[in-house]
Amino acid sequence: MIEVRDLHKAFGTVKAVDGVSFVARDGEITGLLGPNGAGKTTTLRMLYTLMRPDRGEVLVDGIDAAADAAAVRRRLGVLPDARGLYKRLSAYENIDYFARLQGIDADTRRRRIDALVAALDMGDIVERRTEGFSQGQRVKTAIARALVHDPRNVILDEPTNGLDVMATRAMRAFMLRLRSEGRCVLFSSHIMQEVGALCDRIVVIARGRVVADAAPEALRAQTGAATLEDAFVKIIGSEEGLAA
Amino acid sequence: MRAALTVFWKEVRENLRDRRTVINTLLTGPLMAPLMFVLVINAAITRELDKADKPLPVPVAGAAHAPNLLAALRRAGVEIKDAPADPERAVREQDADLVLRIPNDYDAAWSKGEPAQVELIYDQSQRDAQGSVARLRGLLDAYAQQTGALRLVARGVSPNLTRALVVAERDQSTAQARSGTLFGMLPYFFILGVFIGGMALAIDTTAGERERQSLEPLLVNPVGRGSILAGKLGATSAFAFTTLLLSIVAFSVAGRFLPTEKLGMSLELGPHFALLTLFAMLPLVVVLASLQTLAAAFARSFREAQTYLSLLMFVPVIPTLLLSLFPLKTQTWMYAVPLMGQQVVIMRLLRGDPIASSQLALCFACSALAALLACLVAAWVYRSERLAISA
Questions:
Q1: Does B10 touch chain A if contact means CB atoms closer than 8 Å?
Q2: What domains sit in chain A, N to C, each tagged with a CATH number?
Q3: Chain A residue whose CA is closest to B204
Q4: What would the pLDDT profile of A73-120 be if each residue is shown by its tens digit?
Q5: For residue B126, is it within any domain?
Q6: What is the ipTM of this complex?
Q7: Do residues A9 and A17 touch, judged by C-beta distance below 8 A?
Q8: What is the C-alpha separation between B308 and B320, in angstroms, rounded?
Q9: Do B220 and A74 touch (CB under 8 A)?
Q10: Which residues of A touch B (CB under 8 A)?
Q11: Interface contact B266, partner A, CB < 8 A
Q12: Chains A and B: how many Cβ contacts under 8 Å?
């Protein structure tokens, strides 16, 4: 479970995150929805302790990120916005590197990587060097290395960004599978259909604040809009954010 | 510790797969400098030796005016040649190293016992010709003195009267020391080797990692940034150290092919030299690796990092330049200054001068301290929040 309480983060005079609070529960998929530049990535970066909030708290399974960042990172599987691989290493070696950094012993590493390779259907590429991988192959590898330590909580920053239809569908199936395993899945997106199809709960962020936090149907009902997209536009109060 | 080792081995393995890095670290860096050095020095020495032994060809204009002078020059090993039509132009355009011109009135002046003029046409800026010019001038001076002395004797005067002062030169430099001046650039080549050896990794592990967007995922692992940096610094140092090791070995081997003994010089290139050089350079390897990592960590891209590091490469030249411009007497404080200490140690080792173990220890300790400091600064920069963000 991930709890965020009143997060603030400013870069100079720009308030990127200005009082964000929400809860992402185990066995649910929580979507962080918002236009570009709304503060989604900054919020997530504070969640996985890459950035220190100016104010506010992050609790992962009840552990305070400010007090014990390493323990929080062990409980998180993170697919950041930046998902570069090491080109001169094979997909397997890329995943294995992170597994070693997580301090996993050799037998468990082998077992976990095999399981992830099967689940992500990447048996044909796992021994290849990642140079020249397609976008979909790269994302699969990045997800495998993010989840190799079997974390209870999974954070995905725009996971379907740049993926084709087939890869996007596979990604959605994979997220549903993570949910069915009882994990807490938190992902950010600006694509309405995706959020509507997947999420148990939607947190809408605009200009660094949470402007809505509800189930998709509730959100539609709340705003009286026919589609989620209309609801979204109503909630953030302008159409300009969607254009970007 | 285990995390640092994991990072270390991954960086080593990954970079060993990069053919360009491997060639730079294991071939170009260590071999180019000593080989180029040996080739250049060898060519210089051989040329000097050649010139001293070989007959000296001299184009002479107006040879008919001074048959005696030419006979004397021929006896001294000069090969008289026909002069080009325009001697000045021939020298300016480097068709001839030098031309000796004997004017028409030479004969008359000589017979009257007045100073007879000969013209030596040469180009001072032409380093290649300097040896020949000096040699011919020496021969002409000798002939003039000899003839002058004979004239005095013919008049019953002792030639010694005209020599109020005789200078006897007593050169105190040892054979090793003479070669030392010739090899003043060598420490810089070693330092440069270290620099080139570590460069690819310093960039790849910091700016490169950020540019290919893999730094953020890496830092999300439950590992202290200190450990990650330690592994990266270790890998950079390891590559730089390999380069150093190879360049010392390469130079020890290649140095044996230098005909230094023909010039009455000798170089100490045994295992003693190799081991002590390695010892003195060891902390410097870490200093340079940290500085490179630090500079690269500030860069936003691979290219920017390359620019910073190229600028940084000029720093090690400073002590070399200072010591060759102002040949200061070696003093104890010099051992304490990183870079300069290594320069002094390697020079003295090469010249066969004694180094007290306390001085060697001082050099090592001060550079090690600098290494520690550089590491701490790098670690401090590495902890900054900004560093992790790719975009």
A1: yes
A2: 2-75+153-243 (3.40.50.300), 82-150 (no CATH)
A3: A86
A4: 999 999 998 889 999 999 999 999 999 999 999 999 999 999 999 999
A5: yes
A6: 0.90
A7: yes
A8: 21
A9: no
A10: 45, 48-52, 69-71, 73-74, 76, 78-89, 93, 97-98, 100-103, 142, 145-146
A11: no
A12: 85
